Amino acid sequence: MRRKALVFGLSALTIFLSRHALADCWRLPNGQVISTHANSSPPVARAQRIDCPSALQLKENFLKQPVAPAPANEPRMSGDPCDAYYGKGYCTDYIGQRIGKRPRGDPRTWPLNRDVSQIRDGVAVVFAGLTSSGHVAYVESVIRDNKGNPVALKVSEMNYAKGTKAGTPPSCLVTPNFGNITQRTFSLAGSGASGFWP
To answer: Which of 47, 80, 113 is the last residue of a domain?
Structure first.
């Protein structure tokens, strides 16, 4: 039984490590370090985002722990109330679909070209101050004045709406447009656009 538990534990660790590159790590108030999906909100109040430990550190720490299977009736929870929503309709999920890749983390932490005069079709426009995590939209087209300066953007996006969807934790930032693609056109001046990526 102990050998089966060790094999299962190492298999779970391998799966965890393969997904770890797309994760955020948090130090909880009790000192515990946990990993959540990338772009996650803090799992509990006063959790601090930290650099994720290396795979070698995680494996060494795992192998030092005693091996004991959890009781069959004990529920397994990730500790992240937003876990059910990752990859299913956030603004960052949409950018990943449209561009084929995206940076780790929330849009407010993305590396940006802050010179919006260079913005072009097919990039992600970032609004770092729109929510606690920021917001990002896909630029369908740039509308320019007669001198070639960008004055407005036509964008498509997911999860852009005021308020939170009924029945969802407010900290998860799930809006009524979660998973729905919407479009809008707006003036670049005063829009709160922080820059664009890539």
So the answer is: 80
